[in-house]
Amino acid sequence: MNVRDIPAIVTGAASGLGLASAEALAAAGARVTLIDRNVDGVAEAADAVGGLGLACDVTDEADAEAAIARAAKAHGPARILVNCAGVAPAARIVGRSGPAPLADFARVIGINLIGTYNMMRLVAAGGAGLDPLEDGERGVIISTASVAAFEGQIGQAAYAASKAGVVGLTMPAAREFAGIGIRVCAIAPGIFETPMMSAMPQEVQDALGRSVPFPPRLGRPREYAQLVMAIIANPMLNGETIRLDGAIRMPPK
């Protein structure tokens, strides 16, 4: 798909992987709507890329429906969705003070998995009625998984479970949406330079980077965005979760 003048929505777009994806789409000529819970951050990011910035909780049905309606009014129904909204708290299932609060687990599943599903279902419903493009394609949905889906570390139970859910969602969604010409893929990043990572001490970041076989460094958000653009451009990529990790395999802790 050629993204020029194509309406696109990116969640988690105020920073990190989402912002890089929005920047790449806007630079290629897409009409981009940036969505994030960070009201000031998403407004600033939207101004920087020349897109529409909307504050939205992707886990809230009404909030998401309203945001997608506003995006459609401004740019037309979205043909591209990039799901980057997510959280990655660390907690053992059973810690020193006892079992982890169930609400904490539910929150991570809600944002990372249910939020992804919520946006996917709404964008796919809107795209089903669009005129097909080349090869009968109507749209592309890209979600963010993680290498933790395959090698979750101690303390990552909620995060790993949520990202494994994203991986599991990808194939059935791709099969279902094949009939309406919407492709579905996921990207499973390894250790990337994100706001969460930048909050760690520099020596910790350097050590994590050296643990990547090659290149021996943290991934850069623009490299995630490059893969987003490659998936959109290649009509045969469908139903796949692609690791983007420099060949790292995470140890238990």
UniProtKB/TrEMBL annotation:
Superkingdom of the organism of origin: Bacteria
PROSITE patterns: ADH_SHORT
One family name in Pfam for this protein: adh_short
Keywords for this protein: Oxidoreductase
Family to which this protein belongs: Belongs to the short-chain dehydrogenases/reductases (SDR) family.
The name this protein goes by in its record: SDR family NAD(P)-dependent oxidoreductase
Provenance organism: Sphingobium tyrosinilyticum
The organism's taxonomic lineage, starting at the top: Bacteria, Pseudomonadati, Pseudomonadota, Alphaproteobacteria, Sphingomonadales
